[in-house]
Amino acid sequence: MTKQIHLAAHFPGVNHHTVWTDPSHHADTQSSFASFQHLAATAERGLFDFVFLAEGLRLREHRGRLVDQDVVGRPDTYAVLAALAGVTTTVGLAGTINATFNDPYELARQFATLDHLSAGRAAWNVVTSSDAFHGANFRRGGYLAYPDRYERAREVVEAARALWDAWAPDAIVADAATGEFVRPGSLGTVRTGGRLVDIEAVPTVPRPPQGHPVILQAGDSDGGRELAARVADAVFSRHSELADGQAFYTDVKGRLAAYGRRPEDLLILPAASFVLGDTAAEAEEKLRAIQLQQVRPSVARAFVEQVWNRDLSDHDVDGPLPTVDPLVDAPSITQGRASHFRDPLAIARQWRELSEAKGLSIRELVIQVIGRHSFVGTPQHVAAEIDRYVQEDASDGFILVPHLTPHGLDEFVDTVVPLLQERGTFRTSYEGSTLREHLGLPPADAFGRTLDADVRAS
Fold first, then answer.
1. Would you state the pLDDT for residue 16?
2. What is the model's pTM?
C-alpha cells in the first residue's frame, strides 16, 4: 500500500543550522512576527501538516560567555502560536514546552486555549530537562535525576489529558426552571497521586476541539522511546539516514502493542534539511557553501571544546584535532542546550580515527559530525528520495528545517511539493480542518486509553 507523506516546517532558530551570515538573514528576523507569519503562510500554501517552534528556557553559556547564536533570544512559544492562529486557517501549530519545569494544570489550560483559538490545530512537543542550569530560573530550582525526567513527563501528560477529559460537552447547562447556569456533575475534579505530580484541580477551559491536542515527543534514549510509545501521537526523530531511520521506526512502533496501540497510531517524523539546485553538481556546491557558513570557525572550536572540556583557542580549526585527551573530571565549560557526551574519551578516539582516515581538519570533522541529514539535488531527485524514505519505512514524513529565516521554505514549496503531488503521495488539498485529521490520527480517545490508577477524574 502506498503511504501518504507527512510534512511539517520547523522555524529556524538559535542553532548552527541557521545561516546567520547570509545577506538575506538578519538577527531581528528571529523575533519578528512577520517572519513567523511568512513561514506559517508558506507551510499552509504547501499544504503542510504543521509548523513547529522549538524552545529555549535559558541562554547557553560556553567558557563563561553567552553562545553567540543565542544572542537573538527566542520569543515565548504560546504568544507566537496564538498570534499565528489568527493569521492562518488550516495548518497545525506545534510548540515545544518543557514538562520538567512547567506544571500540568497550566500546560493543559494553555494548550486547550490554543486548540480553541485555532479551531483544533494545536500540538504540544513534550521535552524534558535534567540540569540545574535551567532549573535555577524556576521556583523549584535544582533539577531532576536523569531517570526521573521521563517519569515526570509521563505523569504531566497523563494529568493534562485527565484535565482535558474532565470538562464534558454538557458540563455547564442552564436550569430550565430558574435560567441559572448549573454544573450537573460532568465537570470533574482531577486528582493525581503520582510520585512527581500531585494536583487536585478543576479545568477552566472546555474540552479542546481535538479532544486532546496532538502530543509530539523528541527523546531518543530508551526512556524517551518508551514515553513516545506510551503517550505520543508523533515522534520528532533525529534518525534520518535510511538504515538508522528504519531501525528507529521498527523499534518505536514495535513498542506500541504493549500499550494497546497500533503502528498507525504513532507517526515517525525525522528532522531534515534540503538544498536544491538545477543540477546535482550545483546543489552539492550550494551545500558546501551553506555548511561553511553554518559551521563558522567559532562554532567548530566551541563544539570540539565541549568534548575536550578545554580552552582550545590556540588550535587552528583548519588544522588537526588536539593531541591531548579530554578533561573528564573537571566541571563542564558549557552549560545549557548544548550537546553532552557521556564518554568524551571514546568520542575523542572515534573522531581521531575518522579524521585520520579521511584527512579532515577540525572544522571539516565538525561539519561531518553535526550536519543534519539533507536532501540534496534537483527537485526531482529530492522528491524521489523523500518518497523512498517514507515508502521504505524509514519515516512517515519529515519535519523540514530550512537554513534561512524566513524565506528558506519557499523554494521547496514551489518546486518539490508539486512533484510529490504528481507522484500521488502528497495531498493536493486539505481534507480536514484539525491537525489530527491532517496527520490521519484517530480521535483522542480511540486507543481505549486508560489512565493509571493514580490519575482519575471524579
1. 59
2. 0.87
